[in-house]
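Fold this complex.
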Amino acid sequence: MTATIADVAAVRVPERSWRSELRAVRIVWRRDLVRFFDDPTRIMTWLVQPLGFLFVLGAGLQSLSASSTHGVELKTFIFPGVLCTSLVFSAMFSAASLAMDREFGFLREMMVAPVLRSSIVLGKCLGSTTIAASQGVIMLALAGLVHVPYNPVLLLGVFGLQLLVAFTVSAFGTMVAATIKQFQTFTMVMQLLVMPMFFLSGALYPISGLPAWLGIVSRLNPLTYAVDPIRRFVFSRLDVSAAARHTLAPGITWWGWRVPAVLEMAMVVAIGLTMLAIAIAKFSRTE
Amino acid sequence: MRSVSFTVEAGEVFGFLGPNGAGKSTTINMLCTLARPTAGTARVSGYDVVRDRDHVRRHIGLVFQDPTLDGYLTAEQNLRLHAELYGVESAAIPGRMRQMLEMVDLWERRDQKVMTFSGGMRRRLEIARGLMHSPRVLFLDEPTIGLDPQTRSSIWRYIRSLQEREGTTIFMTTHYMDEAEFCDRIAIMDRGEIVVLDTPEALKASVGADRVAIGTADEDAAIASLRERFGLDATVSEGAVTFHVGSGEAFVPRLFAELGVGITSVSVSRPTLDDVFMRYTGSTIRDAEASVADARNRQAMRMLMRAR
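Structure:
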């Protein structure tokens, strides 16, 4: 044994550079993917969850609301909403692993490494984004089943939009994970914050029909501005009546002004970047 | 922590010895840039731990008391992640990884997930990981705590072979007296201070006297009698009246003849690091730990009482 060991030279740790930071981001990102694709339960959930949302929830609600959708199937209407929902859950659970890392001690290994804390946070956030966005791709693959055509422009456009949404939700999850002290708190955040946000985002019904006070809450909900542009983009490429489009994808209004989709997405990205910055600040302060 | 001042030579195995709560981990955390000293300075490998934090981090390896491995990754993936985080040249990673895994006898299990490893295997893997980037100083915080004697001795073998091969300076804490004997030099810490620092041999020589421990029904009477008739200071330690005397064996017959208190057992031992610890702190390391634990229990009790 000793003979084989002796002949390998010692290695060298180079000075910190943008290249070493990039490597750190990449390895933290890759760790998330390796762990994800190594876990059969998570992959099963990842594959089955979109189907559940779309067909169980969609079919259930369809029976109630056939009259008001102008002949558009409810499944088609909720498709963009369900897409966002699965992004949210997937990204949040991935980001939660950061809180797990703290609990199991692994975080310390990353914290003492000679790299910037921001590289670690960024790698983590991108890992969650990738996993969430890949779930979005599975959703997109199901588009045909809910009468959304496989139009390349539509698919690419939605893919781009959902990537940005996945990033913002991941940044939010990372920020929460960086803030909390115990993993259980994460579940509480999911129940108390994320679930209501999901219900009030217009994912399952148009918020135009909500009572005035809930309409205000919806407009304050960041997730609303993630769902709406995707839905508007999908509906702009669907072969439906103008009345249906007007009822089902009316857009969000502020005091009667229809907020442009570009502004909505810009808000989503700005919120994501802000949260990422907060997460980095929180992380840099500990230890 | 009070005032602590010491220098560790390059390439030596330096041991920090003391009961739990003596300030060993705090010292190590400051040297590893994990805790900021409120006053004073520390330099590791020539770099200041506060001002040149990154430089310090590049040159040290760490093995913590608590596990910091990712159980969902394999042994190999854990090491690779570490090498990437430390920016080890990609081409050098496989060779270095094999070298380290072979050293700790885990090469055969490189593809297995760490969660399937036993406590001893995990600790060995952590040591291998701490060495992946060829640190100049390896910090080991209680590396052998909770491990079986066989694993403990193999860990010591790795530490020694490593020091010979790469000249790595080893800085470790332990509260096992017998392990401290393996160090080149040891610092004994008690209540946030270094009470003495020297080679194990010099420390044992400084005690000089043998240790005599006697079992008796009336400990107070025995202590009083020892002081009166022989001029010896004795204390109760680990359930026996203990004192130090020049040549123990020759003293025992006199003891029986002149003490005047019933003796149920007697043992004489050459000085060990336990005696060194006792000489400089006035208690054995186990007693010192018991009193720390007592204080903690008392505090917990007080808090419970207050909560009522």
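Chain B has a mean pLDDT of 83.
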